[in-house]
Design brief:
- The protein is 55% helix and 6% strand.
- The protein is built from 21 helices and nine strands.
- It has a three-stranded mixed sheet.
- The longest helix has 37 residues, at 45-81.
- The chain is globular, with a radius of gyration of 25 Å.
């Protein structure tokens, strides 16, 4: 999945599956043969046209098979060789993946980034993703892994999944929970929805999420309860696949790495409230470290102030020209990695951003007069949301980036396009827990 050439092969699949009239432009692989056929066989026009149509269909099928085989072979080869061609990634490809994350339904996102198709003993075929596919599906401008697109996948059997030798794309984080889950199997669509919920639900509401899964109310979640609730979470009429026919037994009998991790392969284990909290923290910690590592190229444990701003601005709706001006403002104050941003400081900011509506609600509470908040007030609000202190240096960088008029105060309108919309760029709003009480919805 590290190779961008795989995506090139996927484009061949898309091209080959297009109508004939769309494949005759210069530079395409498939060309129509009607013109030359009519010139050479005018006497048998009707008969030959039918034959040509059949040939075109056969040609398309052959091209699809060839491109799919090429994608599969390239993926397997580059995974085995450990080769990465990240430098070949183009901005437009990043932009396309970002649009998938932001605007597509969860099942479409899963289908785009899932790279394997599991073939069970009954010849049932189920799309599955690796843990790093999951990371790619929720991380804008991700360079560690890429989606191959809908319809492109590698077929694997349950025996191959059990041997855990079918892919080598692993998280580089030591003690990785993603690798632990991946060692026990692949992730299904219901697993994807559950993990997305774990990441997108603020920590203060994780007890509510636990109660939703604890159907019997005994303080423990058993595999059967988990299967029932996760099926309802993953249900999606239309779109990619039909989830109405997936019952609890199908999920319980699946080769899900997440189910194996939580409940054991015999499904006899149960998890409690503390297990869910630990799972959420471990997932968040690893996702944060992975994203930090994409900027910390030299492994120094610090990134530049400019890199932090790029992390905040990526996939926002702010015009590129304005983004450039905002970055220039920051780079003028910190022209190079001066003090820099440490991983703990980055982590605290990530938790603030993941708070979503909590941050907006807290800002409104503190700024009822509509006069904005200064840097210390913003740090106080951030501590309410993340339950940890936001670095004074990070706060200064944020104000340099987002305080357009330089008055030293944040207004909702100034920071909304970056701070409040941050979750949307990762698809968090599609999987988060929503609580409603009267007219209040959080």
């Amino acid at each position: 999945m590290n190779s961008w050439r795989v995506l090139t092969s996927v484009r061949l699949v898309r091209l080959a599956s297009a109508p004939v009239c769309q494949t005759s432009a210069p530079g395409t692989l498939l060309v129509t043969r009607n013109g030359s056929t009519k010139a050479s066989f005018a006497k048998n026009n009707d008969k030959q046209n039918n034959k040509n149509g059949q040939n075109n269909n056969n040609g398309q099928k052959a091209a699809i098979a060839l491109a799919s085989a090429a994608a599969l072979a390239l993926k397997v080869y580059y995974d085995q060789e450990g080769i990465s061609l990240q430098a070949q990634t183009e901005d437009e490809d990043f932009a396309h993946e970002n649009r998938v994350r932001m605007y597509m339904a969860p099942d479409k996102i899963f289908n785009y980034f899932a790279s394997f198709q599991l073939i069970s003993g009954s010849d049932r075929k189920t799309m599955m993703m690796t843990p790093m596919d999951f990371y790619s599906a929720i991380t804008p401008d991700c360079t560690l892994a890429h989606g191959v697109g809908a319809g492109a996948h590698v077929d694997v059997t349950e025996a191959e999944v059990a041997e855990n030798k079918f892919y080598t794309e692993k998280s580089p984080i030591q003690g990785s929970i993603l690798n632990e889950i991946g060692a026990l199997g692949l992730l299904s669509y219901s697993d994807f929805c559950f993990l997305l919920t774990m990441l997108s639900t603020p920590q203060r509401y994780i007890d509510t999420a636990f109660n939703l899964f604890d159907v019997t109310g005994d303080g423990n979640i058993e595999a059967k309860e988990f299967a029932y609730v996760s099926t309802k979470m993953a249900h999606k009429t239309g779109g990619f696949g039909s989830y109405t026919n997936l019952d609890q037994e199908d999920i319980l009998a699946s080769s899900s790495g997440l189910l194996n991790y939580l409940f054991g392969k015999d499904r006899k284990k149960s998890i409690n409230r503390e297990d869910i909290k630990k799972l959420q923290i471990d997932l968040l910690e690893e996702i944060i470290q992975l994203e930090f590592s994409e900027y910390d190229k030299d492994g120094s444990g610090r990134i530049s102030e400019s890199d932090l701003c790029k992390f905040l601005l990526k996939n926002t709706k702010i015009p590129p020209k304005k983004q450039a001006a905002m970055l220039k403002r920051v780079e003028k104050i910190w022209p190079s990695k001066a003090r820099g941003i440490s991983l703990p400081s980055f982590k605290n900011l990530f938790y603030v951003l993941a708070g979503g509506a909590e941050l907006e609600r807290a800002l409104f509470f503190l700024d009822v007069e509509g006069i904005g908040v200064d840097i210390e007030e913003f740090r106080k609000i951030s501590s309410w949301v993340s339950h940890s202190e936001l670095s004074d240096h990070v706060a200064k960088v944020l104000f340099a980036l987002l305080d357009d008029d330089g008055d030293g105060r944040f207004f909702k309108e100034e920071i909304g396009a970056v701070i409040f919309d941050w979750r949307q760029s990762r698809g968090f709003e599609k999987g988060s827990l929503h609580v409603s009480m009267g007219q209040l919805r959080i």
